[in-house]
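Notes from hallway chat w/ T.B., transcribed later so I don't forget. T.B. wanted the structure written out for a chain they're using in a teaching module, and asked if we could keep both sequence and structure tokens in one place. Agreed to drop them here.
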Amino acid sequence: VTYQTESFLDKNRDYVVVEHHNLMSSSKCTFIAGLFPSLPEESSKSSYKFSSVATKFK
């Protein structure tokens, strides 16, 4: 199978909901938890940096 990755990051800008991020970062599976490091406490404020699924692949 051959995959085309051109524009992958541009096409996959779905954001990660803070609650989902917190759930994944608390996973007992170290691989999954490592993909979602804990967010700073101020992340619930408007200064929160946009996080998308695609940013995990940068």
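Follow-up for T.B.: Residues 1-38 form one domain. Might be a good example for the class.
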